[in-house]
User: Fold Putative glutamate--cysteine ligase 2 from Solirubrobacter ginsenosidimutans.
Amino acid sequence: MDLDAAREVFETSQDLTVGIEEEWGLVDPTTLELVPKFEVMRDDGLADDVLKDAIAGELISSEIEIRSGRGENLQHALQLQREARRRLFALADKHGVTLASTGTHPLSDYRRQHIIDTEHYRRVQDGLQYVARRNNTFALQVHIGVQGGDRAIKVCDRLRPVLPTLLAISANSPYIDGQDSGLHSARTQTFTKSFPRCGIPDVFGTWRNWQNYVQLLLDTNSIVEFTQLWWSVRAHHSFGTIEVRICDAQTTGTEADGLVELIVACVAQALREVDAGETPPDLPGHLIEENMWRALRYGQDGMLLDLEGPKIVEYPAAEAIDRLKAWTGVDVALPTLNGAQRQRRMIDAGHSPYEVFKQCVEETRATYPAQEKVQ
Assistant:
């Protein structure tokens, strides 16, 4: 791994380019169980000018990732992703597969899923064993271009207290192993609390500090590639982007696009503060982790801690979107109830995991293709 070359990637990067990555479950249309169709869909997608670059594997063969590629700005990235989604739905129909978009799969046993045969995921499985096999989760990840290594690291530092807020807004996974976990984001508990070098990163301040840390991990045989740093926000060495990785997969197109817009606005605001020479709030990790727990446990139905006010006090997590809108100056359209809240309302009304998940799958099917037609 050439860390000097990675810094050069950032020095030549461009502010506020956008890339979107969405992970989908591949499910049987009737049983809604996961089905191992990634390889056949990937191979068929090679004949499509868009999908040949947009489709990627993500750990298990019953999961597929769709990528926008580099958008020159937010609207360009959304346009690219909508077209890729449209084609993915058509490809899934061709293969008799339904696409599901929640942070976890409520029904299928993780022990029956197969990890895809690539060098990267063989390494992940060999290194993490149960932790990797257990991680049947689905996420929305957003890349935002930042020019300059130091600026990129400072933006990551600034976003640390924002991450739990984004998690509360995006929570969409109350189920695990066919059971109600009692959480709003079981995905976060399964992935973020199990994988090494995951969750909220430390403050690094400069690219040099970051580089020294990564070099230490390399020198001590802790990692062999930077992607083994699975933090909820990280500097991506290959793309010259900040990758925000905190969010559950979103059930509807409106939610996914709105969340992408909100994340881009947060990075843009962080850049403005960095360029103005403002010092990010000096917040210890244990306080941010308290908000992480509150977000994954209660989502928008709970209370978060205001860590950046004159005094640490609680506030309703339902206000999180409005607070981020006020901070970023961007008015983003998101529904009043997020995915976890809608599912939990059905759970509280006595619906089974199959019934709840069926509703989610129907929402996905109804809303994504309808939105894709809007260019």
